[in-house]
Amino acid sequence: MFLMARQSISHERLLGLAAYVLAPLVFYSRVGSYGLYLGLLGLVPPFFLLYKEKKNAFVRFHAMQSLVFFGAVYLLILVLDFIPILGWIIGLLLSPVITLVSFIVWLLLLWRTYLGEKYYLPYFGELAQRQVEKLK
User: Fold this and answer.
1) DSSP per residue over 7-76, as a string?
2) Smallest Cα–Cα separation from 72: which of 133, 16, 123?
């Protein structure tokens, strides 16, 4: 019988994953419902990790990247919901695309973080790195 060796995940990678764990909740943000608050809940873990983790650059980077990327998705959804008629039509057409792309990015970030890589999303990764350096 083939037995796989049990691998333990490091504390650093586990905290890096925690930055992304509730991020999909931003997909459910809608104005005029509890989704608005549910979306904000997805941004709580990155804020918490940035506040508590002062020394670990890996964790701080992933927390900031999660906050920047999924915060941008949250704001895009809210802006489209606030614009009357045209915004609703565009939001209706783009919502499945935004959700699918964000979900794929979320899975990619989870996987790369699990592997222990400091994966930079285009634009958002560099922005996150600059912001983490400013927080020091």
Assistant:
1) PPPPHHHHHHHHTTTTGGGGGG--TTSTHHHHHHHTTHHHHHHHHH--S-HHHHHHHHHHHHHHHHHHHH
2) 123
- Structural domain boundaries in the chain: 11-135
pTM listed for this prediction: 0.84
For the stretch 14-36, pLDDT in tens is 888 889 988 888 877 665 566 67
Count Cβ atoms below 10 Å from residue 57 Cβ, excluding itself: 14
Question: Running DSSP on this structure, what letter comes out for residue 8?
Answer: P
**Mean predicted confidence (pLDDT) in 80-87:** 80
Say which amino acid occupies 122: P
